[in-house]
Design goal:
Blueprint lengths: L1 H14 L1 H4 L23 H12 L6 H13 L6 H13 L3 H15 L5 H16 L13
């Protein structure tokens, strides 16, 4: 039994969880295995700093900006205003107004049913929005469409 478990863990480590679990031919019991990451966890401050640094790169191009936004949107969170601020400034450096407005739309969408989050983010970003000349989706009438 130990040899089977060791082989299962080896398959899990080498090729991932899906390859580790094989379906038996008959009604035999299924061996379950879990592959855990033993790496260090990133704190919220480190996460925010990593994304602010990413968007503050002076040589960021439009593809990198969109890639970063898409990756950030994939997380189960609403980005902190300082991350959005850095992304909006990157949009301004690239003269990409459409992406800037789309970022604000995504923040509103990510807030979901928590109606207090989006107004808070806009309140925190208001000086940046004014400085960069970026209108909110509501100011553009996009919330009525």
């Amino acid at each position: 039994m130990q040899a089977a478990a060791a082989a299962l863990l080896r398959r899990c480590a080498v090729s991932g969880f899906r390859a580790a679990v094989r379906r038996p031919a008959g009604p035999a019991a299924v061996l379950h295995a879990r592959c855990y990451s033993h790496g260090s966890q990133e704190s919220d401050e480190e996460f925010d700093a990593r994304w602010v640094t990413y968007f503050n790169k002076p040589d960021i191009d439009a593809w990198e900006l969109r890639k970063g936004i898409n990756t950030l949107v994939g997380y189960d969170l609403v980005p902190e205003p300082k991350i959005i601020d850095a992304a909006l400034r990157a949009c301004r450096r690239l003269n990409d107004f459409a992406t800037a407005v789309r970022i604000l739309e995504v923040v509103k969408d990510k807030a979901g049913p928590h109606k207090e989050i989006y107004p808070y983010v806009i309140q925190e970003l208001r000086p940046t929005l004014s400085e960069l000349g970026i209108s909110t989706p509501e100011e553009l009438g996009l919330d009525k469409a």
